[in-house]
Amino acid sequence: KREEVRAKFQESLKKIKDEAKRAKVESIATTIPELNITLTTRASERVTQIETVLVAIESRADKAATAGIDVSGVRALIASAETTIASARAAIVVQLGKTYAVTIASDTTAKGTLEATRNAFRSDIKIMNTAVKAAHDATRKAAEALKAIPKIDDVVVPNPVVPTTSPETPSTNQ
Predict the structure, then answer these.
(1) Alpha-carbon span 17 to 39, nearest angstrom
(2) Do 76 and 161 contact (CB within 8 A), yes or no?
(3) DSSP letter string over 17-59?
(4) Which of 74, 80, 118, 171 is the most buried (most CB within 10 A)?
(5) What's the pTM?
(6) In b/e form, how buried is each residue of 5-41, taking b as 16+ CB within 10 angstroms?
(7) Which phi-psi region, left, alpha or beta, contains residue 157 (left: φ > 0; alpha: ψ -120 to 50)?
């Protein structure tokens, strides 16, 4: 699909007579897909980091629950954060799949076409970033709810004792 878009763009690029203007248009049109990859990769890394923090929050909530502390509110916020993270991942996948076709009709319409493409790209990136921010906020709310529980920092869950017996060897009674 991207190759088709690129081929159409190269055909429409021939309509621009001025060589400097053609180079500038080509530069801008190739920068948008590169930026899309860079920004979606960065957003994906950020969501992965948010997921790591949520796992730590969930682990801490498990420890508190084991110690008998009520963490039902925190569990609800963790579930909400997981849903929001899934939505952010979906937004990233959608954004990564988008292509931005630049079709130049003439010398005079090149600027308007590039501006429209750039504005569409900005709008789409803003939607993706809003989804990532929502995942961050939901995770932060879960962390704050966990922190608000009294004596949560005093919880000590002992490690389970694992017996250290050696494996039984069969007796050699003959």
Answers:
(1) 33
(2) no
(3) --HHHHHHHHHHHHHHHHHHHHHHHHHHHHHHHHHHHHHHHHH
(4) 74
(5) 0.75
(6) bbeebeebbeebeeeeebeebeeebeebbeebeebbe
(7) beta
